[in-house]
Design a protein that fits this description.
alpha+beta, 37% strand, globular
Length: 174
């Protein structure tokens, strides 16, 4: 029996909500981290949608690969599906993740990739619009700006510098 891997690129990095055996920096090619999803539950509402991260096409993404013990796979999978697939804005996919732990391993990990045909898909909004939405929105899990700040701080603590999020941070300060 093999272990199961989950790739975190946003709030899963700083608030996974499940037990794991190992957390390893990882790298995904072909998808990028993007504030491209209108959140109508966790960080916004139907009236005032927030913006949350999704894996969108193109580029690459640094994040964290979590190794899940096979015995916990079903429990973790059920938890993640309830958390990430509540409005079906993501597809659950298995993607190759290059681990940055000195082992040169590549593992298949569960990733939550944005459904570009979903009504909540925001696409690539201008940074000024993103800043406006992030500042004003609040949902079941709290303020959108807290989600943004927590994600950015965690990325920085891992020495991951996401150019788009850093640019948005500069606009948010101004």
């Amino acid at each position: 029996m093999t272990d199961h891997w989950v790739f975190g690129y946003g709030s899963l990095m700083w608030q996974p909500g499940f037990d794991y055996e190992e957390a390893v920096p990882g790298f995904l090619v072909g998808l990028r981290r993007s504030l491209c999803i209108h959140s109508i539950v966790h960080r916004g509402s139907p009236k005032y949608p927030g913006l949350v991260l999704g894996l969108d096409i193109g580029g690459f993404c640094h994040g964290i690969a979590f190794r899940i013990n096979h015995a916990h796979k079903r429990k973790v999978r059920a938890y993640l599906r309830a958390r990430e697939l509540n409005t079906n804005v993501y597809y659950e996919q298995q993607k190759p993740i290059a681990l940055h732990d000195g082992s040169e391993r590549t593992v298949r990990a569960t990733c939550f990739v944005v459904n570009r045909n979903h009504r909540q898909y925001a696409g690539r909004l201008p940074l000024s619009r993103q800043a406006y939405i992030v500042r004003r929105s609040k949902g079941r899990s709290g303020y959108n700006i807290d989600y943004f700040r927590n994600t950015l701080e965690h990325l920085r603590s891992l020495e991951i510098y996401d150019v788009d999020l850093e640019r948005l941070s500069l606009i948010m300060r101004g």
